[in-house]
């Protein structure tokens, strides 16, 4: 089946942006100019431009026109066990190292563990977990999402039951778990990529369907997993740097 005309026009304009024919901050031709170039009506040209707005390639400014979106600077997220074990927030430390003001918003609630999470936390189906959803920010702009799960059979009734409330709020999983006698000894991560769902795209201010990196991270004590999370990272804003310890003994 042939692609709709507006999508074919969007394909052409997208390629021009990617190859630099239209540079960052440059104004796209008007709807009428595009309609004349491609031999279509202004409505079809407008739909093509709107497609690029939805994908995050261009920004529409009321009364001014549509402009190529400048790429944000790519920052680094360091994935290092040594860094995570020093205490405090690794994310905030990464932002501070790059002269960016890091912060986050979060909400926590007790829920039955989703099926995939029961496997990752080694809990029974239906076991209660504390789910915390984060939106991380850099200079007040959303830059990363995370949804974490902790088994309430470990944390219920303790000072760390709410990750972002109480005397140890915001101190990071390793330090928080240490407060209740859970000594984390290693962490594992699996990195994949997929299109962002609509909610993720809206929270990160991305175009619908933008591909994101997903880090599936789990922390373990000697006996069991104690926290797992899905971290959503836009690849046009961050690169992942892994520091791997080498034991030569």
UniProtKB/TrEMBL annotation:
GO terms for biological process: negative regulation of DNA-templated transcription. Coiled coil: none annotated. Signal peptide: none annotated. SMART domains: HTH_GNTR, UTRA. PROSITE patterns: HTH_GNTR. GO terms for molecular function: DNA binding; DNA-binding transcription factor activity. Keywords: DNA-binding, Transcription, Transcription regulation. Residues 3-71 form the HTH gntR-type domain. This is GntR family transcriptional regulator.
